[in-house]
Amino acid sequence: MRSWFAAVVLVAVTGLAGCGPSRDDCESEVLDPQGETYRCIASEDCPRSANETLCITDTGSDVECIRCLDTWCLRVTPAEDCS
């Protein structure tokens, strides 16, 4: 029974290590008019235009979206749209 539990924990930890933004996505800071990066606690705190969405997962997105990461507002762009 213990080895089964250890295996489940190992799989969970390994899966969590792979969590996060897709390595193929591009991230750029969301800047205010003075050129400073907007600070945030949650993605909802970040300014965005009417056609920009909030990132709903940490695993990448098919469309450009805004997210809060480590108290900084970031624009996440899918890899195929990166320049």
From TrEMBL:
It comes from the Bacteria. This is Lipoprotein. The lineage of its organism: Bacteria, Pseudomonadati, Myxococcota, Myxococcia, Myxococcales.
